[in-house]
Design a protein that fits this description.
Blueprint lengths: L20 E6 L1 H8 L8 H10 L2 E7 L3 H13 L3 E5 L3 H11 L1 H14 L5 E10 L8 H18 L2 E7 L2 H11 L5 E3 L6 H10 L2 E4 L9 H9 L5 E3 L21 H12 L3 H16 L3
Parallel strand pairs: 1-2, 2-3, 3-4, 4-5, 5-6, 6-7, 7-8
Helix pairs in contact: 3-5, 4-5, 4-6, 5-6, 8-9
C-alpha cells in the first residue's frame, strides 16, 4: 500500500532496546523510494544507523522480484549488518505466470537461483501464497513458484521465508508435500493458535511484525503466547505494517522496539529476556553475521 505525502514523515525514535535484536524482514529499497525527495528522506546508510541507535543491529533485506533481489544482494555485499533473501513474491509469480506463462516465470526463478551461490544470500524468500490479492486464476502460478522455491532452499541449504496471506492450509499442505527445508520462517505470522501449534510441532520460526500491536490483533497475540520462545522472531516488513502508536506512517527498522515491547507484555516476559531470545533465534534461523 502506498503512503500519502502527508503520512511520510518519520515517527520519533523510541527508547533503545536493552540488547541487540535483528529486523528479520525489511525492504530498505521500498523505504528509500517512499521517502526519497521528502524532508524526511532516509537512505540505506542512515536507516541502518538509526536502527542501530535503538539496538536493532542486523537486518534481513528481502527481495520480491529479480531486480529487488539483485539489489538486496548488492546491499548485503556493501553493509556487514545486512544479509539478503531473494525470491519471486507470490503476487509477482501470479502476474508473470498469468501474463507470460509458466516458462517466463521459470526463467525468473532461474535468475533467482543464480543469486543463491553468493554467501551474502542466506534465505530464499519471500515466497509462498497470497490469496488475498490473487484470485483463483493466479493460484496455479503461485503454487508452482512456491514449490520451486522450496526446492531451491533445500538444494542450496538456505532458509525458506514464507509469505502466507489467506492461504494457511495450502501453504502447510505444499510444505508437507514437497518436504520442508531445514529452516523455515513464517514472515509476518498471521495464523491463529492452531497454526502456531503446527509451526511449533515442526520447529518453524514465526516472525511478528507491527500488526501484533494493533488493538484488533487479539487472535495474533493469543498465537504469540502459545509459541515456544525459541521459535520467535521480530520484523518490520518496512515500509509497511508500522506498529502502534505510529500506524499508517512509513515504517523502518528503528521502530522495532514498539513491537518488541508489545511481544514482551503479551507473553509476560522481560524485554531483556525476550531480546536475548530474539537474537539467538535469528542467528539460528539465518546463520551468524
Amino acid at each position: 500500500m502506498l503512503m500519502s505525502k502527508a503520512d511520510q514523515g518519520r515517527p520519533s525514535t523510541p527508547e533503545p532496546l536493552p540488547s541487540p535484536v535483528v529486523d528479520s524482514h525489511c525492504h530498505l529499497d521500498v523505504v528509500d523510494r517512499h521517502l526519497k525527495g521528502s524532508d524526511e528522506e532516509l537512505g540505506v546508510e542512515a536507516a541502518l544507523a538509526r536502527a542501530a541507535s535503538v539496538n536493532v543491529t542486523r537486518v534481513v533485506q528481502v527481495g520480491c522480484d529479480v531486480a529487488s533481489s539483485r539489489w538486496a544482494v548488492s546491499v548485503a555485499e556493501e553493509f556487514d549488518s545486512v544479509i539478503a533473501a531473494v525470491a519471486i513474491h507470490p503476487n509477482d509469480a501470479a502476474r508473470v505466470g498469468n501474463l507470460d506463462g509458466v516458462p517466463a516465470l521459470d526463467a525468473q526463478i532461474d535468475e533467482i537461483e543464480s543469486l543463491l551461490v553468493n554467501p551474502c544470500v542466506r534465505a530464499v524468500g519471500e515466497t509462498g501464497l497470497d490469496y488475498f490479492r490473487t484470485g483463483d486464476d493466479g493460484k496455479p502460478a503461485q503454487q508452482h513458484s512456491f514449490r520451486r522455491h522450496i526446492n531451491l532452499a533445500k538444494k542450496y541449504d538456505r532458509t525458506l521465508v514464507i509469505h502466507d496471506r489467506d492461504s494457511h492450509d495450502d501453504v502447510i499442505a505444499i510444505l508437507r508435500e514437497e518436504g520442508a527445508p531445514n529452516r523455515v520462517v513464517f514472515h509476518c505470522f498471521s495464523g491463529d493458535v492452531a497454526m502456531a501449534r503446527i509451526c511449533a510441532d515442526n520447529g518453524w520460526w514465526c516472525s511478528f511484525a507491527g500488526v501484533v500491536t494493533f488493538p484488533s490483533a487479539e487472535q495474533l497475540r493469543e498465537a504469540l503466547i502459545v509459541l515456544p520462545r525459541e521459535l520467535l522472531l521480530v520484523e518490520t516488513d518496512a515500509p509497511y505494517l508500522t506498529p502502534a502508536p505510529h500506524r499508517g506512517r512509513v515504517n523502518a527498522s528503528y521502530l522495532i522496539p514498539h513491537t518488541v515491547q508489545m511481544m514482551s507484555a503479551t507473553r509476560g516476559e522481560s524485554i531483556e529476556e525476550l531480546c536475548l531470545a530474539l537474537w539467538d533465534n535469528s542467528m539460528r534461523a539465518f546463520g551468524v553475521w
